[in-house]
Amino acid sequence: MAIVKFNKKACTVNPLKMSQPVGGALAFMGIKDAMPLFHGSQGCTSFGLVLFVRHFKEAIPLQTTAMSEVATVLGGYENVEQAIVNISNKQKASLIGICSTGVTETKGDDVDAYIKLVRQQHPELDHVSLVYVSTPDFKDAFQDGWEKTVAKIIETLVKPRPADAPRNSRKIAVLPGSHLTPGDLDELRDIIEAFGFDPLFLPDLAGSLDGHIPEDFTPTTLGGISLDEIADLGDAFYTIAIGSHMRTAAEALKEKAGVPYQLFDRMIGLLPTDDFIAFLTQISGKPVPNKIKRQRGQLVDAMLDGHFHTGGKKIAIGLEPDFLYDLSNFLADMGCQIEVAVTTNQTAILDQVRSEEVLVGDLEDFETLAPGCDLLITHAHGRQASERLHIPLFRMGLPIFDRLGAGHITSVGYRGARDLIFKIANIFIENMHVAKPDTWYPHPGAEEGHASADKLTTH
């Protein structure tokens, strides 16, 4: 059981975490014909827009109420109203998802009241769905913004149903955590469909940010789950929630429509995938398809091959809480030692991380603790620490802006875990010290006979 600690610094030096509004906006991007809207300054929105564009390498729909200093002091109703009207009339959005920011939260804007007033003054916009989520960026983090947004979408848009109402035995509602990529969702979709189900993902980033080329240009999201599909989620046979932070959304759907749910707080590795497959077998009444059995055998073989290279390796991980928990336990299963675990915010799941302690901190803390480790795992902002420490970096999380294919990284299921083992083991193989004749002889000018050997073995 890990001990959770907090840094005592006066400020964050090199941020690890992304803000709540960014997490909320990304959740809205998994809905068809949606437009996320930041209620705040233009700078807040520009930051999020650049972040997503660099990560996904796609056109990103994101708008702002463009609050100035005067508007912030006097109140932002006119800005909210104008933004909703413009987005509805010009960009034809079916859903406008409003996320608050630090400046408007500090002011105390009552956005729910603003929305009611907009509804009264603009009845011609009744066909546009409006969802507001309180996501101040001076507290919590990316994962929390995603969690709140998905729960609010369910509370606002799903049609209520009695718990004993008839259900569609083929429909499965899937509530993926913020740490799952479009590639992960595609993998989960393949697995669930193999058991005869029709999964609906909320949000569905695999439908909107998977890098496909649309037939026509649209200023809103390119795909994802539709508003009609969200409204009818209440007749799903079961809900599958992935990540401990998705319990809130699963509870909301259960309360709204009586849909039972199963929470999987891990989805990377052999045992978590076994549990997932066993659950699908149980609720479907069908045997495990042969292709999935074969994938399991491939993962077991990959674990056997990979553990020679991963066993005993010291790892430093800096990720959001649920991602940290999932990935660190998978690596511990592969024989790694989790020497450094740094995350963005305190959650109950951190107690179960297989490390002596977990620090809620930033990338400066991460770099300070990492010397002596064999591998760093965090997003692309860890590249400077990797260069300074001469420790290889394996990029995971968001953002990854200095590599292609970030949206297609897949780590869940048997195939995802298999490929993850190969990628990590290959890093160790690539950086493995190989003894050469020069290893045993000092370079000219070396002060000590062992200096050159030490330099070679360090890298």
Tell me the CATH superfamily of the largest domain. Nitrogenase molybdenum iron protein domain
> What is the 3D shape?
globular
Mean pLDDT: 93
Number of domains: 3
Radius of gyration equals 24 Å
Number of beta-strand segments:
14
Number of helices: 18
Strand content: 15-25%
Q: Give the biggest beta sheet.
A: 6 strands, parallel
The helical percent reads 40-55%
Distance between the termini: 32 Å
The CATH class of the largest domain is: Alpha Beta
Oligomer: single chain
CATH topology of the largest domain: Rossmann fold
List the uncertain runs: 446-459
Write out the strand line-up for the largest beta sheet, numbering strands in chain order. Answer: 1-12-11-10-13-14
| Estimated structural class | alpha/beta
CATH architecture label of the largest domain:
3-Layer(aba) Sandwich
Structure description:
This protein is α/β, with parallel strands linked by helices. It has three domains: 1-16 and 308-459, Rossmann fold, CATH 3.40.50; 20-156, Nitrogenase molybdenum iron protein domain (Rossmann fold), CATH 3.40.50; 168-293, Rossmann fold (3-Layer(aba) Sandwich). It is 43% helix and 15% strand. It has 18 helices and 14 strands. The chain has helices spanning 20-28, 42-56, 69-74, 77-90, 102-107, 111-121, 142-157, 182-193, 205-208, 227-231, 247-257, 270-284, 290-310, 321-333, 363-369, 383-389, 413-430, 451-458, and strands spanning 3-6, 34-39, 63-64, 95-100, 129-133, 168-175, 198-201, 236-242, 261-264, 314-318, 337-343, 357-360, 375-378, 393-395. The strands form three sheets. The protein has a six-stranded parallel sheet with strand order 1-12-11-10-13-14, sandwiched between helices. It has a four-stranded parallel sheet with strand order 3-2-4-5, sandwiched between helices. Strand 8, helix 11 (247-257) and strand 9 form a beta-alpha-beta unit. Helix 1 (20-28) crosses helix 7 and helix 7 runs parallel beside helix 11. The longest helix has 21 residues, at 290-310. It is globular. Pathway: Cofactor biosynthesis; Fe-Mo cofactor biosynthesis. This protein may play a role in the biosynthesis of the prosthetic group of nitrogenase (FeMo cofactor).
